[in-house]
Amino acid sequence: MKLALLPSLCLLGLSAPLPSAESQPVEMAGYLFAPADKVPEDFNGGFSLYAAAWPLLATYPGHAFQTGLCGTWMHPENPDKKCYTDIEGGLGWWRDTHFPTTTPKFIMGGVGPNFSFIANGPGYGAGTWEKPRGQYGVAQLSPWLLFPLDGLNLQQGTSGELFGYGYLPLPLTNPKTTTAGRNLPTGNQSWTLFLNTSNFKGPVAFFTPFFWSQATLDHPEWAGTLLDARPAGPNKAIQMETQHVPAVLSADAAGRQMARVAPTRFPVGADGSSTVLHRLTAYKRAALWDAVQKWFEGGAAADGAIKAEASAVHTFRQGGGSNWSIYPPGTKRDDKAPLAWKSFATSFTPNPITFGYQWSQTWTRRRGTLVTLPEYYVLDAGGPKPQWTAIAPAELPADSALAQHQFATAPEPPQEPRTTPDDPASCWKTPGPAAGPFQAHLGDGSAVTYFWYRFADQPAMLNADLTPAEREEVQQRVEKLHRTWTKERNYLTPPDLGSLASLDPALILTPPRGLEIGYVPIATRQELARASGP
After folding, report:
1. In this structure, are residues 294 and 323 in contact, taking their beta carbons and an 8 Å threshold?
2. Under 8 Å between Cβ of 534 and 60
3. What's residue 4's pLDDT?
């Protein structure tokens, strides 16, 4: 028995079994897969979906924790294989989240070529303010929604409700023949985040075309191939990416490797099944762009409704699986042992446009609107590849360290505030805001300081490679949107089942009198408002 286990010990990066009274910190990570049928390639004008939002872990473990909920990666159509670029944000938790709770947040997740630039929201991205690599990549569009520097907050306590979001391009700018003074083109696709939640609906913010095209200054060969100009590939991977869930490893007297994973949960409905994804939709350009373009050229106002006849809803197939694995950090990909996922989880399609799971009543336990997956596993090395098989707590050795282990929030110093430049000569101060400061107190325990800027004077627009005249033209277009596209009506097609998630109510704003049209709220600082942690 011990001889048969030796390969698996090497696989786990261990030279010898751990005593049962001792434990080693490890992690669970990997992907869950949702198999979606393809749609025709001409549905290349963006996407939307409804993803369930819920507290994946019972206790927030600390900033090593990073995982997304169900989402996708939107790449340019026919991408250059040497140039990785996409929009891949969504719901989840990230290591750089300053003010986390067990409730997920939402980030936009724009990735410039080969991660040279990353933009997660207005004022939130890679780099530093001295050397920004994405902080100016997203411009605020909505006058009714505050986007915090730490990501977009959902209402605390969200547990299984559907969060609707997607990206469609808007012709807010005109195509340019030059980029930062160079003879390189920049397209006019402003990929715009649309939300459908219970308390906010409509466009929120957009990636400026220059966010993508700035990479061509160093790589002219990429001109015209990035998301400023290229349509989006319509058939995208649908997965749940988990990079770190805490776990611990131990062994029994016979040398069997045993593990425990932090209580990991999924939402469940009245029938005990979990809906995690619904109404994944791809769009043609005619879904929105054409009507808006005619409007901006002097035609009739576009009502903003995304045309159903120019959309295709993906259907889900039976199947889908998981490569969630338990292993010490640094383990090579081929040496990771997966969970025997299908022993307790079965992919489930209650209708063709909904994907979820049904759960083994033997290995999972339900409490309220959540089901907890098995916590304890033993490494089974008897098959073609070792895998972690669920076991009952009663199967643990009497002196096992696993049963005594407490998954708690790691002790950490209070997070520093997220800030923006305060230099009077900076783009944050010149020409500067029209009103403020104001403050919003959020459910994550943070306070956000924000100001109202004229749309064209917000920092992202001042860093979008636009002349003053070009910015003024965008200003006039945005004022048309503000007058016509309100936050109460549907833009994305509503879900066919379930209920909609809510954003943190503190993020829903009413513009000050006189600033209702053509002005937007911009967060400038976010800090802890109370001493307690998440």
Report:
1. no
2. yes
3. 31
List Cβ neighbours of 440 (8 Å cut-off, separation of 6 or more): 146, 447, 448, 450, 506, 507, 509
Amino acid at residue number 50: Y
The yes-or-no verdict on residue 330 having pLDDT over 90 is no
Q: By CB neighbour count within 10 A (0-12 exposed, 13-18 middle, 19+ buried), where does 187 fall?
A: buried
pLDDT band, residue 2 (cuts 50/70/90): very low
For the packed helices 289-296 and 468-484, what is the interaxial angle rounded to 10 degrees? 110
Average pLDDT, the chain: 93
Residues 6+ apart with CB under 8 A from 29: 242, 243, 244, 245, 324, 325, 327
Residues written for the chain: 534
Q: Is the CB of residue 198 less than 8 Å from the CB of residue 502? A: yes
pLDDT tens figures, 233-254: 999 999 999 999 999 999 888 8
pLDDT confidence of residue 384:
83
> Using the 8-state DSSP alphabet, how is residue 385 labeled?
S
Which of helix, strand or coil describes residue 472?
helix
The Cα-based distances of 187 to 257, 329, 367 in angstroms read 55, 42, 51
Residue 107, H or E segment: strand 105-107
Does residue 174 contact residue 473 with C-beta atoms inside 8 Å? Answer: yes
Separation of alpha carbons 480 and 258, rounded Å: 61
Position 29 pLDDT exceeds 80: yes
Residue where the block lists tokens 């319509």: 234
Of residues 9 and 216, the one with the higher pLDDT is: 216
pLDDT of residue 19 exceeding 60, the answer is no
For residue 475, CA distances in Å to 343, 468, 495, 509, 518 come to 56, 10, 33, 20, 7
**CA proximity to 71, closest of 94, 88, 55:** 88
What is the per-residue pLDDT for 1? 27
Which residues touch 456 (CB under 8 Å, ≥6 apart)? Answer: 471, 472, 474, 475, 478
Contacts of residue 163, Cβ cutoff 8 Å, sequence gap at least 6: 50, 51, 52, 53, 91, 106, 154, 195, 197, 500, 501
Q: Where are the domains of the chain?
A: 1-534
Confidence of residue 522 (pLDDT cuts 50, 70, 90): very high
Cis peptide before 437 (omega within 30 of 0): yes
Tokens of residue 276, six digits: 């995690």
Q: Are 429 and 522 in contact (CB under 8 A)?
A: no
